[in-house]
Structures are given as C-alpha cells and as structure tokens.
Amino acid sequence: MWKGLGVCTALTVGGFTLADIPVIQQSGISPLVFALLLGMFAGNLPWARKAEGLAPGLKFATRWLLRGGIVLFGFSITFGQILALGLGVVALDIMVMSTILVLGYQLGTRVFKLDAETALLTSAGSAICGAAAILATETTIRPKPAATSMAVATVVLFGSLAMFVYPALYSVLGWDESLYGVYIGATVHEVAQVVAAGEAIGADALANAVIVKLVRVMLLVPFLLIVGQWWVRRDKTEQPAQADGSRITIPWFAFGFVAMVVVNSVITLPAMAHESLILAGQIALAMAMAALGYETRIDKLRSLGFKPFFLALILFVVLIGEGLFLTPLLMGA
Please, what are the averages of pLDDT over each run of 10 residues along the chain (333 residues)? Predict the structure, then answer.
C-alpha cells in the first residue's frame, strides 16, 4: 500500500506547488486539478505500466481518502450562513441543480450517445460543485477512471471560462452587486472559481457568492442518496441477470459531511485547528485525484472524444441563461 500512497503524496505535493505559483494562484485553479494532471502524466509514462505494488495504495486513495476529504469539506460550511440569505437561495440552487442534472443526463445519453457514467459525472460537476461533486458521485457509481478524468476536465475548462465571462456580464447587466453575487454562487462550477469571479465584482458579491455556492455543496448529500438508489435500480433493469447481487448503495460519508457541518455550526474551533482540518480535507481530495489521474490512460480519454466537452458547453450556456432568469425572480429583485 505504501508505494501507491507514496506516489499519490509526491503528485499531491507537486499539485500544491504548482497551484501556489503567483500567476497560477490568481487563476483560481485548484491544487486538485494539478494533482489529477500530474497523475495522468505520470501514469502514462512507459515505466508506469510496469510498476508493481502500487494498486493497493491507489485504491485506498480513491476510496477512503476521497471519502475522508469530502467529510472534512463540511468544515467549510455553517447552517447560519445558509439561513442568512433565506429560502429563496435554497429554491434557486435546487432548481438550477435539477435542471442541469436532468438535461445533462438526457442530452449526454440520448443525443451525444455518451455512456451513462460520463454523462452523469459531467452533469454533476456542472450542477453542484465541480470536481468535489464528480469525485463524490464517482464513489457511488464507480465508473472507469477515464470518465471521471474527462468530467473533471470539462469543469476546469468551463469553470475557468466563467471567471472571465461573469465579470464581463456584470458590467453589461447593471445588477446590484449583492444580487449578482447570488447569481455567481448559483451557477459557477467550483468553489475556487466562485471566489475568483466574486472578488472581481466586489466584497458584497463575494460574500453572497460563497454562501450560495456552499448551499449548492450541501445539496450534494440528497443528490448522492437519490443517485445511489437510482443507479442500482437502473443496473437491475439493464442487467437483470445480475439483479440478485445488486444492493442499494448508501454513501455514508455524506452523513459524515453533514455531521461536520453541524459541528462547524455549533462549536467554534481555534482558527489554526479549523484551517488545519480544511487543509487536511484538501490534501485527501488531492491525493484521490492524483490516484484517479494515475489510473487514467490517454487512449481511454481519446475514445470519449469531444462529446463530453460539447455537453459541458451546452450546460454552461444553460447555467448562464437560467441563472439570469431565476435569480431576480426568486430573490425578489
């Protein structure tokens, strides 16, 4: 196991090092993304296919470190932050998330003829919270590593594009800064990308954007509970011969995530301890991404083609348009 974890650790250190470069840091790209890319690079080197003894450590990272990272992500949220903006924010996030998930899966499987795993992961990344949602969904449906890596790539591309598009739209729309922050939080992919876009507008926009985004992150829990049951029933329908061996997948780590939100809401931890727990979660997620990248083969990505990116582009446009319509409607502006 230790050989595989050692590789993940080295790739994670490289990912955080790259993310800390000043020019890259301003772009808002997460260390998780760099860990994934470094993993893909290392995993596709000639010697990587011959390396032995790595599988147990890689498997541990993609399962247990991933779940632990998502649980610790709960320390980023409090219920007080959610209640401060009212129920309109919850309704907005639910409507945006539901639209993107249903539309993305239907377009992906019916129009673009993608496999169900790639369509669902791409949709989840756009609808909820980027790479974290993709990784959490990955633990529930257990797709091929290539599908996960491709879904993360779409989030990186269009989430990064959002950091430039949203500030440009703000100057055209003339909305109130606080309201525009709600719009950013409800429709931009990653937490880091939300922060970058919100900072470009102003302090009020940033504060609201982060809170609304964290409400979307909370919706990851009911999504995982629903998709876990639906996925097993779908497998039973498509492969009845295997029905007896199938069982409902309950993502217990999602309840751990909620528990950490509760702890973070009722207990004030010392600043250093709080920051250390959040950093530990980021490191665990980065190691999981490094392992997924290492197990991804470029030839598998090529077989998926550009269709996932076309799907993600459509979802990106829908996010912008739906948010423009629903945000002032539900927030009473």
Answer: 90 92 75 86 80 85 84 83 80 95 96 94 92 85 85 86 90 92 93 81 86 86 89 69 47 81 91 93 89 80 85 97 95 73
| Own/partner pairs, 267-275, CB within 8 angstroms, 24+ separation | 274/75
Cβ atoms of 293 and 131 within 8 Å: the answer is: no
CB 159 within 8 A of CB 188: yes
Measuring CA to CA, which residue among 213, 181, 215 is closest to residue 198? Answer: 181
For residues 321 and 174, the answer to whether their CB atoms sit within 8 Å is no
Those residues whose C-beta lies under 8 Å from the C-beta of residue 196, and which sit 6 or more positions away, are 26, 27, 28, 163
DSSP annotation of 53 reads: S
Alpha-carbon distance of 57 to 303, in angstroms, equals: 27
Any long-range contacts for 167-172 (C-beta under 8 Å, 24+ apart)? 167/197, 167/200, 167/201, 169/320, 170/201, 170/205
DSSP assignment letter at 128: I
Token pair 């924010």 in the structure block, residue: 89
- Are the CB atoms for 92 and 186 separated by under 8 Å? yes
Q: Residue 72's closest CA among 284, 273, 220, 218? A: 284
**Beta-carbon count within 10 A of 25 CB:** 11
Reported in sequence order, the residue ranges of 193-313 that DSSP labels E, i.e. its strands, are none
In which residue are the tokens 């102003």 written?
202
What is the CB neighbour count within 10 angstroms for residue 5? Answer: 18
pLDDT tens string 15-59: 999 988 988 777 667 788 788 889 889 988 887 766 778 889 998
Tokens of 261: 């939100």
Question: What Å distances lie between residue 147 and 95, 233, 253, 307, CA to CA?
Answer: 26, 21, 22, 12
